[in-house]
Amino acid sequence: MRVELLNVGDELLRGDIFNGNAGWLGRRLTEAGVEVVRGVVVPDDTETIVAALREALERADAVIVTGGLGGTSDDVTRDALARAAGVALRRDPALEARLRERAVSRGVPLRESALRMADVPEGARRLPNPAGTAPGLRVVLPGGVAYAVPGVPEEMRAIVDEHVLPELAGTPVAARVLRTATVWESVVAARLAPVEALPGVRLAYYPSPGEVRVRITGTAEDRVAEAAALARELLGGSVYAEEDLDLDRVVHRLLAERNATVAVAESLTGGLLGAELTGMPGSSATFLGGVVAYATPLKHSLLGVPADLLAAHGAVHPDVAAAMATGVRERLGASYGLAVTGVAGPDPQDGQPVGTVHVAVAETGGSATVRSVRLPVAGDGERARGPIRRMTVVHALDLLRRHLLTLDSSESWAVTAGNREEPG
Amino acid sequence: MRVELLNVGDELLRGDIFNGNAGWLGRRLTEAGVEVVRGVVVPDDTETIVAALREALERADAVIVTGGLGGTSDDVTRDALARAAGVALRRDPALEARLRERAVSRGVPLRESALRMADVPEGARRLPNPAGTAPGLRVVLPGGVAYAVPGVPEEMRAIVDEHVLPELAGTPVAARVLRTATVWESVVAARLAPVEALPGVRLAYYPSPGEVRVRITGTAEDRVAEAAALARELLGGSVYAEEDLDLDRVVHRLLAERNATVAVAESLTGGLLGAELTGMPGSSATFLGGVVAYATPLKHSLLGVPADLLAAHGAVHPDVAAAMATGVRERLGASYGLAVTGVAGPDPQDGQPVGTVHVAVAETGGSATVRSVRLPVAGDGERARGPIRRMTVVHALDLLRRHLLTLDSSESWAVTAGNREEPG
């Protein structure tokens, strides 16, 4: 089953509203084993929609249309469907009565244009809308079937899940996801060459700063499982999840399993590391708090980093990271202290170039483990700031993860350190 | 000038990656007076891309293609452009040399497929990429011009802004932007009814958690300026910028003008407030650091919030916010202390419902000013967490802004407090 998406709306083309419906539909259909062959966005114009419907059904078996089903004059999807089907629009007495009843019960006047929502192309099937007023419509056109749903995300999702997907669903594709941190996409891809060579599976890489998500798909469950197992072996400790789970949740789970807590000391990230560790509900079970020592003297006064160390080497030094981790752990009474210091740019700091980052983890009664890395600087300094800060968070979380799992952490860092390649 | 967008990538159709590039391009082009007539997403398939290019240039004067310019085997946009132009691909010696140099300097082997990034359709113009490796390409095709840019957002944006928009820009529409914080979209729209009624201008509202961006456009510069002046007057102190400037930068500027600094104390935001204040280069001039006192006892031990206050009222109380602001200001030696405490959810805390938030600002020798607000909870608790945390940051920054400008802050808060409306 091949499906095309047709999203209707001037506001989508102008970027006033981001087209989240296309992404949701793409993922939902793919999961249901339906191939999405194209996505098209067109303005609120009847002729254009009619043409797009015809083109879509030359390529695909069905088209899902979102938007243009409301009750204002620029909602023309119904007219376009009728014209494409070569039929007339008929006002549905039951729908009309419902619209009038609603208006009366709310004590608001009914706009004449709102009655357009009761218009249905002859022969079309109404798809009940559990979340709103305008029903979806199923219309048989030359070449295939069109499913039209409102553009309001909640209504669109409800109608698609209840009435559209059950009709379209094919053989679900078998899929596995592996998520890795602190190893570049090209390194991941190089290691997975033997998996790429396996018959019947397809690999896709989705990089984000500091991370790569690998998706393995195929039609045969056992082949995909076998490929995933090989990939897992080849990637080793850099894989932090074998499902679609974020790194912060993995770290939270590892800490919770050990009844352990963490406190963070931040410099260049300004609070991002703490923000990441508190994004999920229930994070208070493992996250105690943090200190953002942005100004250098605060690293001494708030975290106990030796003043002579700061005077001799500045704030960007492995020993400073170690002292920050130890200091925050002790002061906040956490099982683990996690610290980052470095240069986000745009200018070098204390003689260190932009992208120089040291992360450290300290534990009760133990010394601190430090990893130093030179992160890639993309574009000019100001633009690189965001990715560098984000990558620093990923590297810190991954260091704690490897520490908790007693995994070798030199592997990823050896790859990373000195590697100036773009992160994907 | 009519432009069509063509986004290439299987991952977009499957919804693995959200097509943010289309939204960004739509907004950018619209602002530049260019009409976006259609948006199309196609898979990584040469034939399909060639067909889509031809169709696009039957409808539009130019097409902007994103994606498929990387160095892996599924990056086929270059091949498609060459085929659509009826020319061959030629390896560019300068680009190839640059790729080889990069690989050597990094000490990594150069994959043969990565050299594809040096391939250029004959006659195409390279569009330098300031943020990455693969250049953009400008190719003249039958029917119009194709601009191909990488799918990586930073690279796409840089090349479009520097090389594509200057060529495409039409008669710019006169435009003014007003940015407001802590007032709901419906309130902004109601206040601006007299501006809506003016002839020759069009208003658009772009809400985000805690903020509304108002854009006033028209063809006559003087009418737009007049409308903006009236809007400014009607919106009063809730306008934090009359240009496209983020709230954190406005606060930074106000602090810098006063040679003042700020330190933050955070609870539910976990570090987001500090992260926001350090997002921009040069933030160290005004931001000293912060304390994330996520666990309640840390509010006492790290910030000096009276233990009996915490015992009597819990952590979510106006007096706790005030004590946090005062405590962090004193301990970090800043001109101002800014603090937030509240309930991000999904569960109530200390008897306070989700969305209860107190923000406070303290200054040298002065008592703290506290504002309390009940933020709207959208969707189920877990989904509401992100927006509540984001709105809390906006409310805190806006309180400091109003404090620095000695603006009445009850106005926005009176509107906000008890108002359970969705933020947009």
Description of the structure:
Two copies of one chain form a homodimer. Chain A contains 16 helices and 17 strands. The first copy, chain A, folds into three domains: 2-168, 3-Layer(aba) Sandwich (Molybdenum Cofactor Biosythetic Enzyme, Chain A); 174-241, Alpha-Beta Plaits; 249-416, Maf protein (Alpha-Beta Complex). The longest helix of chain A is centred in the C-terminal third of the chain and has 24 residues, at 381-404. In chain A, the strands form four sheets. In chain A, strands 2-1-3-8-7-6 form a six-stranded mixed sheet, with helices on both faces. With 424 residues, chain A is of the alpha/beta class. In chain A, 51% of the residues are buried. Helices cover 40% and strands 24% of the residues of chain A. Chain A has helices at residues 10-13, 20-31, 46-59, 77-85, 93-106, 153-168, 185-191, 193-196, 221-235, 247-257, 272-277, 296-301, 307-313, 318-332, 381-404, 410-416; strands at residues 2-8, 35-42, 62-66, 89-91, 119-121, 125-127, 136-141, 144-149, 174-181, 201-208, 211-218, 239-241, 262-266, 287-293, 336-342, 356-363, 369-374. Chains A, B: Residues 4-171 form the MoaB/Mog domain.
